[in-house]
Specification:
The complex is a heterodimer. By secondary structure, chain A is an alpha+beta fold. Chain A contains four helices and eight strands; from the N terminus they run E-H-E-E-H-E-E-E-H-E-E-H. A four-stranded mixed beta sheet of chain A has the order 1-4-6-2, with helices on both faces. Chain A has a four-stranded antiparallel beta sheet with strand order 5-3-7-8, with no helix packed on it. Chain A is globular, with a radius of gyration of 16 Å. Chain B is α+β, with helices and mostly antiparallel strands. Chain B has a single domain, classed as Roll (Ubiquitin-like (UB roll)). Chain B has a five-stranded mixed beta sheet. The chains are: A alpha+beta, B alpha+beta. Chains A and B meet through strand 3, helix 2, helix 3 and strand 7 of A and loops of B.
Chain lengths: 159, 83
């Protein structure tokens, strides 16, 4: 069985990941995927962010995401799930994160994909540091992400 | 008892990646934080009450009232911002 979770510096390929996720599974009728990308701005001018560094907690990060995938399987009728998150130095326009879910019908796949992203945003130990003309700064957590996690009854208090 | 403490992101920059500390048996995560705060200096600033911080016990998110077992790996870090 292919890995469900990968934390890597390398880029990923959506088509290859989706093909692997549903390979040989005739019970899959829907695949929903989400890709997060690096913006060149964060509440300011276009181009203000010139680089982004992603730090994580090796060991805990993998464990936290495996646990969230387990929860997605328990909560939704899904047949497969795949999470890839990049770490290390990234540039604007780069891909950061992929969440892909397969299921018999679209409803459960859409929900599980959103659940996984809301969980990841508030529970997985990653930290972003962005470089701007004023220097490097750690990105603040967003209250909206905590609110999104609360919809699923997930622990809040990240902000 | 000896506890391994790890720091990430802005806390790592302020305090270094890790240290081993000695705390009284039965201490909670919050008491461990208080002991580090009592050192003053950079620790008092980085771990100050009122700063949004999260902690993990043996690589699982935990509340400050959680007791810390001997030899545990404890981590302090800012709110997470992945995705």
């Amino acid at each position: 069985m292919p890995a469900r979770v990968s934390i890597q510096t390398a880029d990923f390929d959506l088509s290859a990941e989706v093909a692997a996720l549903r390979a040989g599974d005739g019970g899959v009728g829907a695949v929903v995927s989400f890709i997060g990308t690096v913006r060149d701005r964060n509440g300011g001018m276009a181009g203000e962010v010139s680089a982004l560094e992603l730090e994580h907690y090796p060991g805990m990060t993998e464990k936290a995401i495996e646990a969230m995938v387990d929860q997605a399987f328990a909560r939704f009728q899904i047949r497969g799930a795949r999470v890839v998150h990049r770490v290390g130095p990234l540039q604007p326009l780069d891909q950061i994160v992929l969440v892909a879910v397969s299921s018999p019908h679209r409803g459960q796949a859409f929900q599980a994909c959103e659940f996984l992203m809301d969980y990841l945003k508030t529970q997985a130990p990653f930290w972003k540091k962005e470089t701007t003309p004023e220097g490097a700064r750690w990105v603040d957590a967003r209250v909206a992400d905590d609110e999104a996690a609360a919809r699923w009854g997930l622990p809040t208090g990240n902000t | 008892m000896k506890i391994h403490v790890r720091y990430f992101a802005s806390l790592r920059e302020a305090l270094g990646p890790q240290e081993t500390i000695d705390v009284p048996p039965g201490s909670t995560l919050g008491q461990l934080r208080d002991q580090l705060l009592a050192r003053g200096g950079r620790h008092a600033e980085a771990l100050a009450r009122g700063r949004a911080l999260r902690c993990a016990l043996n690589q699982t998110m935990a509340d400050e009232d959680t007791p810390v077992p001997e030899g545990a790996e404890v981590a302090f870090f800012p709110p997470v911002t992945g995705g």
